[in-house]
């Protein structure tokens, strides 16, 4: 259904941070919203941040093993986007296992999702980070092209 | 995070907030959607905080705008839809030139003449 090249189109070299400065959950969300806005098609950063914080009120998107996948739909964005960000020290994210989050994938989509891409994408990323080898590789990624190869390799193996 | 009013009028901004919140509430209350997220490893708790936020937001919205939104939301999953290439992406009808020219009127919510949904411009 989704091969790696289809999947990689949601990533953008501008939407990448090898080291977040933030030390708090809110700070991390804000920093990632700033990153999304570096790409095209973000209408409103405040609206996007509000949606993401509200989603956290429903339950943390920190899924454990040092991974958080904040996500949601908002009128603030025109297309589906993925941010990859990392924190070597880790950021408290109210995760399921109470451990700090190191790896972040932020996924945002417009409410009207013509090709129905958002949920499969979310599922694919959630699946990718289940593998310890993928998480280790993501922790070692140095730049955008490194991320690209880890992501495509992880998907290509399937 | 205070740059928002430069991109959207306050009027549209509050209605946008409401739709974002309503989409989240709908998904959180859809058993199948909830199960999908839980299977992916996400926690889906109670919606109390979101409904409280919704009530606070409603008190800030112009009652006329709110009536309009709620009337449309009863009929359509998305009350607010984008316009692309002069076409309403709710019903896919082309908009008349008169509607397109009203686009510069920031204090007015524009609706599609055909389906009635509130419009916003993508570009
Ligand atoms: Zn229409």
Structure characterization notes:
The complex is a heterodimer of chains A (158) and B (123). Chain A is of the alpha/beta class. Chain A has one domain: Mannitol-specific EII, Chain A, CATH 3.40.930.10. Chain A is 42% helix and 19% strand. In chain A, strands 1, 2, 3, 4, 5 and 6 form a six-stranded mixed sheet that branches. In chain A, strand 2 and strand 3 form a beta hairpin. The longest helix of chain A has 14 residues. The model of chain A has no long low-confidence stretch (mean pLDDT 92). Chain B is globular and about 45 Å long. The N terminus of chain B is likely disordered. Chain B is mainly alpha-helical and 123 residues long. In chain B, helix 2 runs antiparallel to helix 4. Helices cover 50% and strands 9% of the residues of chain B. In chain B, strands 2-1-3 form a three-stranded mixed sheet. Chain B has a single domain, classed as Helix Hairpins (Orthogonal Bundle). Chain B contains six helices and three strands; from the N terminus they run H-H-H-H-H-E-E-H-E. The interface between A and B is large, with 38 and 34 residues. The structure holds zinc ion. Zinc ion binds next to loops of chain B. Zinc ion (ZN) binds next to loops of chain B.
């Amino acid at each position: 259904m989704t091969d790696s090249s289809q999947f990689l189109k949601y990533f953008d070299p501008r939407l990448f941070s090898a080291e977040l400065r933030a030390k708090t959950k809110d700070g991390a969300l804000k920093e990632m919203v700033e990153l999304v806005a570096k790409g095209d098609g973000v209408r409103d950063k405040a609206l996007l941040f509000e949606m993401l914080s509200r989603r956290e009120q429903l339950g943390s998107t920190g899924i454990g093993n040092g991974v958080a996948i904040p996500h949601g739909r908002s009128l603030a964005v025109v297309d589906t986007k993925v941010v990859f960000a990392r924190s070597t020290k880790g950021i408290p994210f109210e995760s399921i296992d109470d451990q700090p989050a190191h790896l972040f994938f932020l996924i945002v989509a417009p409410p009207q999702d013509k090709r129905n891409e958002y949920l499969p994408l979310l599922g694919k990323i959630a699946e990718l980070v289940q593998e310890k080898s993928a998480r280790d590789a993501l922790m070692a990624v140095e730049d955008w092209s490194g991320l690209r190869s880890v992501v495509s390799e992880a998907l290509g193996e399937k | 995070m205070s740059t928002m009013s430069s991109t959207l009028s306050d009027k549209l901004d509050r209605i946008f907030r409401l739709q974002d919140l309503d989409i989240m509430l709908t998904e959180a209350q859809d058993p199948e959607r909830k199960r999908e997220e839980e299977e992916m490893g996400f926690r889906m708790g109670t919606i109390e905080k979101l409904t409280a936020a919704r009530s606070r937001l409603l008190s800030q919205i112009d009652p006329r705008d709110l009536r309009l939104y709620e009337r449309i939301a009863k009929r359509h999953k998305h009350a607010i839809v984008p316009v692309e290439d002069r076409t309403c992406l709710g019903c896919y009808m082309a908009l008349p030139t008169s509607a397109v020219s009203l686009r510069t009127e920031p204090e007015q919510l524009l609706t599609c003449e055909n389906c009635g949904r509130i419009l916003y411009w993508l570009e």
